[in-house]
Amino acid sequence: MIADTATVQLLVADEGNRRALASVVDRHFTAVTAEELREADLYIVDDASFPQYRDELDAHKRAQDPVFCPVVLVRRDRTAITVELPDPLTAEHPILVNELMDAPVGAEVLYHTLVNLLTQRSQTITLEEQNARLEQFAETLRHELRNPLNILAGHLGFARETGDSEYFDKCETAVHRMERMIDDALLLIQVERDRVEAESMDLRSLVEDCWDVVSVPGPRIGIETDRRISGDEYRLKQLFENLFRNAVEHAGDGVTVVVGDLPDGFYVEDDGDGIPEDRRDDVLVEGYSTEESGSGLGLAVVSAVAEAHGWHVSVAESDAGGARFEFTNVSFV
């Protein structure tokens, strides 16, 4: 709940006001106790202290913009201070005072007012994080698409000059790689945007279905689990399909993939060449790929699906020296 973690600073000069307001803040929020302006999620001032803190609050709100930083002004009876609350849709700068309340303020009214303002702040923080993520994602995709586009352009030039079908085959490979990048990119956006629709399913059957989708003659699968798992079936299929595809592409036709149980989760491992220890933190990040045919997003999809389910994922070495992905904090039924 927002109230459990939110910080509120009381910058109130009137002692009677301070005691009444503090009784609510101390009970439901984390109070920031200091006379000078400190970092907090919400600020409460009164008409006696407002002139002292006005410029600091204004500068602080501008620095945090576009993240919403709410300020509540409590106005005492018979005070001469007047504050005009501008229209937020037309204001060029962050509004300094977001809520004007007349003392004495009822405890329940104050609590619900603060929760509403803090909810708005939480929403703007989430939005900014999503915007930053999208910017990073767009930059990664732009960078990753450049390589196959350059390959495509180069081979098209050779194809025109020579008419050799080999260059057309290489063009086709580059196009397929870009198609996979786009598919993985759309899936990654969907995973991060949509809510998990959890249901109970048989983990063995899920793994078998996913292996059938990506397997080719040669690679083998071992399934050492009989558990039922709780999760979003569509997303979990993407998780396993990307893991299996990654194993087949990196370890080759002779690879054996095993899915087995952990005390609070499961693992997926192979007997390929493995992932160097100094690269294991990188493989779940967007843009990581060691294969020319890879999208650079497949394992980022795996990480995003796990995170959406509240799971923890780590990369290790299998007993055979291959790659091992461990998923913990998994819900079983």
TrEMBL record:
<dbReference type="GO" id="GO:0000160">
    <property type="term" value="P:phosphorelay signal transduction system"/>
</dbReference>
<feature type="domain" description="Histidine kinase">
    <location>
        <begin position="140"/>
        <end position="328"/>
    </location>
</feature>
<keyword id="KW-0597">Phosphoprotein</keyword>
<dbReference type="InterPro" id="IPR036097">
    <property type="entry name" value="HisK_dim/P_sf"/>
</dbReference>
<dbReference type="Pfam" id="PF00512">
    <property type="entry name" value="HisKA"/>
</dbReference>
<dbReference type="Pfam" id="PF02518">
    <property type="entry name" value="HATPase_c"/>
</dbReference>
<dbReference type="GO" id="GO:0004673">
    <property type="term" value="F:protein histidine kinase activity"/>
</dbReference>
<dbReference type="InterPro" id="IPR050736">
    <property type="entry name" value="Sensor_HK_Regulatory"/>
</dbReference>
<keyword id="KW-0808">Transferase</keyword>
<keyword id="KW-0902">Two-component regulatory system</keyword>
<keyword id="KW-0418">Kinase</keyword>
<protein>
    <recommendedName>
        <fullName>histidine kinase</fullName>
        <ecNumber>2.7.13.3</ecNumber>
    </recommendedName>
</protein>
<dbReference type="InterPro" id="IPR036890">
    <property type="entry name" value="HATPase_C_sf"/>
</dbReference>
<dbReference type="InterPro" id="IPR003594">
    <property type="entry name" value="HATPase_dom"/>
</dbReference>
<dbReference type="InterPro" id="IPR005467">
    <property type="entry name" value="His_kinase_dom"/>
</dbReference>
<dbReference type="InterPro" id="IPR004358">
    <property type="entry name" value="Sig_transdc_His_kin-like_C"/>
</dbReference>
<dbReference type="InterPro" id="IPR003661">
    <property type="entry name" value="HisK_dim/P_dom"/>
</dbReference>
